[in-house]
Amino acid sequence: MPNVRRLVVDLMKPYEPDVVEFARELATLDGVAGVNAAVVENDQEVQTVKVTAEGDDVDPDALADVVGDLGGSVHSVDEVVCGDRLVEERRTPQD
Q1: Neighbouring residues of 8: CB distance < 8 A, sequence distance ≥ 6
Q2: Which listed residue, 8, 14, 45, 75, has the most CB atoms within 10 A of its CB?
Q3: Does residue 16 contact residue 72 with C-beta atoms inside 8 Å?
């Protein structure tokens, strides 16, 4: 089965731990080479964060487990790239 090279998820998290600690924890996962975490929205009690994890073998279940351990929850998987290389989304005539 091809490895997941990029995983983009939308998640909700409490304010603590902060987004820096969240990204650092996700970056320690086996198979993850880097993480980008961008706060999309601040609500009264939670933050909505878009997380992009890239690496040789990103495990979606392990990522969701760490998010849960930190008090957050994955709301959606918004992008997945699998295979031997990263493939960027391209515009098509339908766009």
Answers
A1: 50, 51, 52, 53, 77, 78, 79, 80
A2: 8
A3: no
Instruction: Report pLDDT digits (tens) over 16-70.
Output: 999 999 999 999 999 999 999 999 999 999 999 999 999 999 999 999 999 999 9
Query: What is the pTM (predicted TM-score) of this model?
Result: 0.92
Sheet with strand 4-14: strands edge to edge: 34-42, 46-54, 4-14, 73-82
Widest CA span in the chain: 44
